[in-house]
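From the pipeline queue, job 12 of 40. The input is one protein chain; the requested action is below.

Action: predict structure.
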Amino acid sequence: MTYTKQTQHTTLHQAREELRSLRDLLRFAISYFNQTDLFLGHGLPTAYDEAAHLILHSLQLAPDQLNMFLDANLTRHERAQITRILERRVEEKIPAAYLTHEAWLGNFNFYVDERVIIPRSFIAELLETRLSPWIMDSDAVDTALDLCTGSGCLAIVLAHAFENARIDAVDLSKDALDVAQKNVTNYDLSDRIHLIHSDLFTELAGKRYDLIISNPPYVNAASMATLPEEYRHEPKIALAGGQDGLDIIRRIFDEASRHLTENGLLIMEIGHNREMLEQAFPQLPCTWLETSGGDQFVLMVKRAELPA
C-alpha cells in the first residue's frame, strides 16, 4: 500500500494514540517510510537508519542509546513530536539532516541547515589514512586548502588528519561560511582553520599549499533537471557544475598549480564524471584513488602534472 494524504494522517494519528514504546514507533516509522517515495541519499542509507536518527533526535538521545531504551514507554507529547517529524520528512521531502540540524561524516558530527549541502564525500574516507601512501609523513604537511568548503566538514577532518597543518577553507557563499564557522568553533579549531570568502582562488593570491582538497559542484545540467525532491532543498550553487558538470573542475585544474608547493598534491572528488573528464583532459595523468564506492570518484594530480 502507498499512503495517500488522507490515509497518512489517519495512520499517524493511530500511531500517536495506540503505540507506546520506542520499539513500536521505530517499527512504525520504518514501515511508514517504506510505503512512501522517499529518496535516501544523504548519509543515512536505509529507512531504518533515517527512522532511528529522527526518533533519537526527537527524544534527545544519543545514537548509542537506542538499544538501551528500545522498550521504554513514551509520553503522549513524545509520540506527538516523533510523528510530527516523520510527517515532515514524508510530506515536505526534507532530508533528515535538515530536520535535525545534524549530519555525520565518518566519526565526525556537524551542524547543518539549508545554507549548505549535507556532508557526504569519499575524500573523508581517504583522510582517515592521512592519504597514505601518497603522503608518507603527515607531519610534513604545513599548509592545506579546502576549496568549496560548505559546512567546513572536510576542513575539520583535514585538520584532524594533519595535525601540524594550517588550513584555509574557501567558499563563494557567505551563508555557507557562517555555518562552517559554527562547526569550526564547535571543534575548537579557529586557531588552525581560516575561513575565506572567495570565488575559488581569487582571494588567495601568493598563497601556496602542500595539499589542496576539493569536493566542488559537479552535477551536470541533465542530472540537475531530474534530481529527487530531497536534493532541491540543498543550495543549487553547491551542486550545479554546468552543462557537462565540469565548469568548476576546469577552473580548478587551470589555477591549482599556481597555489601548490613544489611537491604539492590536488585531491578532488568529481562525482560520476570520470569518463567525461578523461575525454576533456586526455593528457592529464590523473591517479584515481580507491574508495568504498570504487576508483572513479576521487582523483589525485601532482603539481608538476597540472597545467602551468
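Job complete. The first strand starts at residue 103 and ends at 105.
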